[in-house]
Amino acid sequence: YEVPKEMHGNKQHLQKDFFLYNA
Q: Looking at the record's lineage, which domain of life comes first (predicted)?
């Protein structure tokens, strides 16, 4: 899973996107 540069460093957004990608 690659993190977009815009989301890099934002754990809350990372967790949301992570779950969305794995849904």
A: Eukaryota
